[in-house]
């Protein structure tokens, strides 16, 4: 598995550290059978997951999410871009 689609397990000691591999937004979690995708979450989704509700987003749902919410990852790219 390459570094882009590698899963990020925060339950393993030492995994949550500076320089650790983190999947890029819209990367497939399991590229072999296209199940699961890394997507930025809305605050409502974060609250639901924090409350223990399950959340499973599939690759086929991504275009509708982008249409409905816009590209939630765009702000991350803009915030980390070097000044012009």
Please state the CA-atom Rg, rounded to the nearest Å: 14 Å
Could you give a short account of the major beta sheet?
2 strands, antiparallel
How do the strands line up in the largest sheet? 1-2
Fraction of helical residues = 25-40%
Backbone structural class: alpha+beta
How many beta-strand segments? Answer: 2
Beta-strand share of residues: 5-15%
Number of domains: 1
Count up the helices.
Answer: 3
User: What's the SSE pattern?
Assistant: EEHHH
Name the shape in a single word.
Answer: globular
Mean pLDDT: 76
Q: Which regions have little confidence, pLDDT < 50, spanning 5+ residues?
A: 1-9
Terminal CA distance reads 35 Å
Oligomerization state of this entry?
A: single chain
Key structural traits:
single chain; 84 residues; alpha+beta; 3 helices; globular; disordered N terminus
